[in-house]
Each structure stands twice: as C-alpha cells, then as structure tokens.
Amino acid sequence: MSYSFLDFLCLLGAVGLFLYGMKVMSEGLQKAAGDRLRNILSAMTRNRFTGTLTGFAITALIQSSSASTVMVVSFVNAGLMTLAQSMAVIMGANVGTTFTAWVIALFGFKVNISAFVLPLIGLAVPLLFSKKSRTKSMGEFCVGFAFLFMGLDMISTYVPDLQSNPEMFAFLKQYSDMGFASVLIFLAVGILLTMIIQSSAATFAITLIMCSKGWIDFNLACALVLGSNIGTTITPILASMSGNVAAKRTAMGHLLFNLLGCAWVLCVFNPFVELNTWITCTLGQGDPEALSGFVSHLQTTDPDVYNNLFNTLPSDHALFGHVTEAQKTVESMQFSVSFGLSMFHTVFNLINLSIMIWLTNIYVKVVERLVPVKHKEDEEFQLKFISGGLLNASELNIAQAEKEIAVFGERVERMIDMAKTLLHTKAETQEFTELYSRLEKYEDISDRMEIEIAHYLNRCSEGRLSNDGKLKIAAMLRIVSEIESIADCCLGAGKILMRKNQSHSEFTKEIYDNIDTMFGYVKNAMSNMLRLLRDIEHAREPEIIASYNKEREINNYRNQLRTTNIENINEHRYEYQAGIYYMDLISDLEKTGDYIINVVDAVKEQIRHNAV
After folding, report:
1. Are 484 and 579 in contact (CB under 8 A)?
2. Residue 11 neighbours by CB under 8 Å, 6+ apart
3. Per-residue buried b or exposed e for 324-335, using 16+ beta carbons within 10 Å of the residue's own CB
4. Measured at the alpha carbon of residue 43, what is the angle toward residues 458 and 47, in degrees to the nearest 5?
C-alpha cells in the first residue's frame, strides 16, 4: 500500500471541507430556522424518550451515527437545542447505528448518502440568489450540509486504505492470547482504527476479515467493535472544533456516553460475550466462537486448502471464488460471526441506553464541569424564562417576557464594561483581539435575543389579549429594539478603537480620563435603566426622574468635550486624527445614552397608562 504526501494533503483538505460545511450549515440554520425549526425540534425532543426515538430514527434512516451526531452538534451550536435535549438524541443515535451493522451483516450493503451530494448542491445554488433572506439561508444550509457529507466521504477516501490491506493487521495475532490484556489491546486497536478510517462500518468489515483468517477469536472481535464505538466519536469532536462551547459540550457528552458504556462492559466482558453467543445460538444462527478455531485447525491440518481460501480475500461478503466443502463451512461460520457481532453491538447499546437515559441531568452537569466556559458570562445563548413551546395563556406569558428583557439588558450592560476595558488594552496584542472577538460575539447574541424575544411577543399578541396586554407588548417590543441598539453602540465603540489602532493614532492621558468619565455616566444611566426593567410594573417616579438627569449630564458633558476638543487641536495638544477618533467615541457613548433614555420613555409610558 502506497500513501503519498499528496494523499495526506488531500486528507487535510477533506477535514477542512468537513469543518467548513459544518460552519456554513450551522450559520444557515441560525438564519433560516426562526421559531419553526425550534418548535419542531422542541416537539421531537420534548422529553428524553422522544429525543432518544428521534436520534434512533434519524440514524437508522441515514445509516451514519457520525452524520446524525454532527447534525445534533450543529443544532446545539445554532441554539436550536439544549445540551440536555442533545444528550437524549445522541443516546438514540448510538442505538440507531446498530441498524447499519444489521444491514451490513444481513445484506452486505450500506446506503451511500454522498451520492446525493452533488444533486443537492445543484438544487441549492439557485436558492443562494433568491431575494428572500429565509430562502437564501436555506440554500446556505443545503450547501453546508452537502459540503459536510462530501468532507466525510473524502476523509474515508484519503485515509490509508486499511480495509483492502488486512495483512497489515497480521502482527496483531501475536497479542491474541494474553487474556484480558488482549481485550484491552484490541479495544485500543478498535478505537484507533475507527478514528483513522472514520467509519465504524469499515472497522466492522476488517474485524470480520481478521476473524475469517483465524487471527482473532470472537471475544477479541467484540473488543474491536466495542472500541469502534469510542472511535466514532472523533467525527462530532472534529465538527465541534468550529462550534461554540455548547457544541463542544455536546461532542464531549457523546464521548462520555461511549466511554462509560465501555467501562461497565469491560467489568463483565467475558460473561457479556457469552450472553451474546448464547443469544446467537438460541436464534439458530450457529456458534460465532467456532470460526477462529476451525480456521486455525484448517491451517494446521490442511495448509493447501487454507492458502486456497485465504490467498486473496475480498472485503465484501462474496469472500470465496471456488465452492468447496471447507468454503461452505467457513461461509456459514462467518455469517454466525457477523450476526453475533451485530447482536453484541445491539445488546450493548440497548443496555447502555436503558442505564444512561435516567442519568441525563447528571450527564449535563458532568459535561459542563469538563468543558467550562472561559468567562462565566460567556455562557452560550439560551433564553432563560421563555421557550419555543405552545403558548396557552398569553397574558401570563408577558410576565415571563419581562424577566427575559431584564436578562437581555444585563447581558448588554456587560458590553459597556468590555468596551471600556478595550479602550485601555494595548493595541495589536492577543488580549485586544480576544476582547474584541468577545464584544462581537456578545453583539451577535444580542441580535439573536432580540429576534427570539420579539418572535415570542408577537406570538403572545396573536392570542386573546386585553387592551392593557397589547399595549404592554408594544412597549416591550420597543424596549427590546432599543436595548439591541445599545449593544450595537458598544460594538461601534470597539470598531472605532480598531480603526484608531490601525491608523496608529495615540490618545493623551486627558483624552483617556475624559472618555472614562463619559463611560461612567453611561454605566450609571444603564444601571438605573436596569433597576426600572427588573420591576416594570412598580417602577418609581424618582428613578425615572434620575434617568432624565443622567441623560442631561451625558449631553452636557458631550457638548463640553466637543468645545474643548477644538481648542486642544488648535493648541496642538494632540493630533487632529486622534481628536476625530476621540469625538467619535464620545458621540457613540452619547448615542448610547439616547437609547437608554428611550427605554426609560417606554417604561414611563407604561406607568402612565397603568395609572389611568
């Protein structure tokens, strides 16, 4: 087998295409999904049992647990599923993958989804040129989905062709009589083999070949299959690399599920293998443990027949060219091994599921501990008080929306602190880049929160509401829009600082002090606004008056700085370009104050209406 450097580069390109497809697919989902897909997924994963059935059905249909778990990772990455929901779907996917093993064992074929990839791209490309945003986003999703499967298919193509070169594994025969140590060795081989060739189905075929040649017996074949369960988790881990913290936690949950499952099986390995042997024999499919002994005996007693049978051994089920008595016996025994391995895989996953499904919440806590966020406030976007479920009592749900808006305001408030920290962070450093990226991420989350809360409020308004309720929703929609504008201003401050750094302009200490003072005024105004939002129904008049006073302070200070800026430039205290960026920042912060007072106006109107 020859494997060139070009093949290795092609493998890297295939992994890159896979990761890019995951990214495009996830972004397309975020833009196109809206409430519709969230509601569908919410219904499909309403509890751990329906979630498990969903995972099983999807995996059985597309015959790839890797593909289905990658889709789950993308859903979580897009904020369409929670971590707990994804755990149930992944558990179902692990059982669903046994369906593929049965298809290979009984019929010797596997559905090749990659054959539909190019037609899918052909259908999706016209959607990219649509004027409708949702249609264009669906096109992006389809193209990303196609790229993802192209990447998966090409990874399998450009990894070393181990399946067609089983002689590479002949050396493993010397490790097959070491007792339980042999089980651990072949478990590790199964993990590594599946990680390399990216296909548990191919590992299954190689295992069958090794059994057929008499290199390993049935219990070591089971260890290889057990290892393939862990090895197949590498694909969603790869996919999560381009995702957010929630996506990484989902991939880690998949790995943890399979690791813990393998751990308990290893504790009772020999009795568990004997159980599956008994089930296979009871169902009339023969003894799966007989093949390796028969082949070893044949190799010793009749080497010519053995060589004739195993000189060239294809990888499919049509394993032999000439029909002989020995060949018929081996074929029958090989089917018993194939059936027994499929039974082992199925029983293992069913028992694993029946144990682990009750521990979903513990799983979530463990995964959150294993994959922490760098900053606690960076916890991925998930609405706390409202959901995409059916709305039964619209009036009551308004109170939930009010709580969510307060959380929204608190998240945006943190952006003001980030922008101020960015001001004092040294330009062109890793710290500046990371902080600016966090600011961008927060702004993106604020956009999504605005859309989700607005959709929720619109759905509430479609219900039977009183006039008071309708006016409340109108006020809350305005508040949500203004809070998102505050987030835009915070990112705007970051962009101004980015441009200032690119032009190599320098601020004086006086400029820094003045901007810090302005940040202080804005932060005080924001804090006062949040106090009003936390209890809109009982907002007090003194707090509203205080907000107007703070807005006047911001405007007066802006005017004062604008006047002194012209004098300072004329006196050459700092460069003209620095003065431009300085005033841009001050104007941006003053505009932030305007949006804050707009929120206060909406709260004031609400109080005035309630008093009437």
Report:
1. no
2. 155, 158, 159
3. eebbeebbebbb
4. 125
Task: Name the DSSP letter for residue 503.
Answer: T
Rounded CA separation 274/290 (Å): 13
Hey, what are 358's tokens?
């009750």
Cβ(172)–Cβ(216) below 8 Å: yes
CA dihedral 504, 510, 512, 518 (to 10 degrees): -130
**95 and 229 in contact (C-beta within 8 Å)?**
no
Environment class of 84 (CB within 10 Å of its CB; exposed 0-12, middle 13-18, buried 19+): middle
Q: Tell me the C-alpha distance between 500 and 282, whole Å.
A: 77
Predicted pLDDT at 82: 74
By the 8 A CB rule, do 422 and 435 touch? yes
Q: Which of 295, 289, 269, 274 is nearest to 179 (CA)?
A: 269
DSSP readout, 35-70? HHHHHHHHHHTSSHHHHHHHHHHHHHHHT-HHHHHH
> Which pLDDT score is estimated for 391?
42
Within 10 A of 133 (CB to CB), how many other CB atoms are there?
A: 10
> Quick one: three-class SS letters along 429-494?
CHHHHHHHHHHHHHHHHHHHHHHHHHHHHHHHHCCCCCHHHHHHHHHHHHHHHHHHHHHHHHHHHH
In the chain, which residues have pLDDT < 50?
Answer: 34-35, 109-110, 162-163, 312-323, 377-379, 388-393, 611-612
The amino acid that residue 416 corresponds to is I
Asked if residue 229 lies in contact with residue 258, where contact means CB atoms within 8 angstroms, the answer is yes
Identify the DSSP state of 175.
G
> What pLDDT score does 388 carry?
46
- pLDDT for 164 equals 54
Sorted by sequence, the CB contacts under 8 Å of residue 325 that are 6+ apart come out as none
Contacts of 4 (CB under 8 A, 6+ apart): none
Whether 424 contacts 585, CB under 8 Å: no
Measured CA to CA, the distance from residue 388 to residue 386 in angstroms comes to 7
Q: Which backbone phi and psi does 188 adopt, to 5 degrees?
A: -65, -40
pLDDT recorded at residue 422: 92
- pLDDT attached to residue 319: 38
pLDDT tens digits along 394-441: 555 677 778 888 888 988 999 999 999 999 998 888 899 889 988 988
Residues 562 and 85: their CA atoms lie apart, in Å, by 54
User: For residue 258, what pLDDT is reported?
Assistant: 83
Give the integer Cα–Cα distance in Å for 571 and 550: 31
Which residue has tokens 């070949």?
209
Q: How many Cα atoms within 13 Å fall on the side-chain side of residue 371? A: 22
Q: Taking the model in full, what pTM does it have? A: 0.56
Digit-coded pLDDT (tens) for 76-90: 766 667 777 788 888
What region, left, alpha or beta, does residue 201 occupy, with left being phi > 0 and alpha being psi -120 to 50 degrees?
alpha
Rounded Cα–Cα distance for residues 446 and 483 (Å) = 9
Return d(Cα 411, Cα 339) in angstroms, integer: 55
Note the pLDDT of residue 169.
58
